[in-house]
Amino acid sequence: MFRRMDLLLFGITAVLVLFGLAMIASVSVFESYQITQRLVEQGLRTETSNSFYLLRSFLHVMVGFCIMGCTIIIPYRLWERLAMPLFLITLVLLLAVFLPGVSVDYGTAHSWLRLGPFSLQPSEFLKLTLIFYLALWLQKRETLISTWKDGFIPFALLLSLSTVLVALQPDLGSFLVLTCIAVTMFFIAGGNIFHVLLGGGMAAVIGLPIILQKEYVKNRFRAFLSPDDPSISETIGFQIKQALIAIGSGGFFGLGYGKSIQKFGYLPEVQSDTVFAAMAEELGFMRMMIILSMYAIFVYRGYRVAIEAPDRFGFLVAAGITTWIAAQTLLNMAVNLALFPLTGITMPFISYGGSSLVSVMLATGVLLNISMYSKEAMNVERKTRRAKTTHKRRAAY
To answer: How far apart (Å, rounded) are the C-alpha atoms in residues 70 and 59?
Structure first.
């Protein structure tokens, strides 16, 4: 069975994850020292460390690989039966982030739950459970998707239910990625292009006003629209200004691994949201193109797995997962390049973040499992078996 797995897709995933671990080891040194120093002052630690984020990331990677291994083995059709309960569970968890006592605030968003010594971001797992449920729902309405009453209206209600809870946190990045996933899946399932555009527009009209009620989100848009205003670039636009400085400083070949200057307190969230900028500073344009090429190959292979999937559920799930990785990567890059306002979205496989890494590796495991059942891989295996049988018969004679 594993011989039919898309080994290139698996290899790229492993390389990106391990590369992300190496980059966190480099760029998080200063931030690790700062956070452990605060913990020492509070009496929660006995000494400072420059590997705080590295050790936690290593744990995330180990858990991620274990979970990916499990989802590679589990037949993807099992998720078809579990799609509804998993989707409902993540919606309940999204509601729980608004409850005092179990919710945890990091920064300005209410997006995390405290589960003992661990924290969980439900919106990251909603991306996958929404894909499962949408795939189930869309395949059942295959002949009705293009209609207004039985296709678009139920889809719009489902999309609103999923995205409004995320918008209330508010989590602009996840809101945009979820909308992109849902609209893309609806379109490739046979949705009317007018309905697709209308659905995306409705999500923006409903969700963005909710998100923009927060002053800090408005400030992010102000910083994006007026980047040259000194009163903005040195205050609310500081993060994106420093990201651009980091990217520009890298040039074609970078300053060298471990030699970033911006990571020493100049670039906020350097190990998560802006890791792309720190990577560009250390590696430069030419080496970054290698990393981005790996993402491009991942997306190409992901959509190829979708095309070759043996059934409609597998096709829709593979396309949804690939769209998720592609959209989130492009959005993170756009933010770091000042092509879009700050969203707080992570770079898949590379950025620090347990929920983010585990969810994308879980999803990649599902994608790899679908690749095992691809029509082309099974045809190749059948031809190989046939050739071996023929060779044995000839040898016997």
So the answer is: 17
Instruction: Kindly report the average pLDDT of the chain as a whole number.
Output: 85
User: Considering its fold, how many domains does the chain have in total?
Assistant: 1
Three-class SS of residue 7?
helix
- Where does the chain show beta strands of DSSP type E? 103-106, 109-115, 118-120
- Domain containing 261 equals 2-396
d(CA 297, CA 184): 19
Structure confidence at residue 333 as a pLDDT band (50, 70, 90): very high
Question: In angstroms, rounded to a whole number, what is the distance separating the alpha carbons of residues 1 and 378?
Answer: 9
Q: What torsion do the CA atoms of 248, 253, 258, 260 make, to the nearest 10 degrees?
A: -10
245, burial (CB in 10 Å: exposed 0-12, middle 13-18, buried 19+) = middle
- How sure is the predictor about 2, in pLDDT bands with cuts at 50, 70 and 90? low
The identity of residue 30, as a single letter, is F
Hey, is 115 helix, strand or coil?
Answer: strand
Question: pLDDT tens digits, residue range 350-367?
Answer: 999 888 999 999 999 999
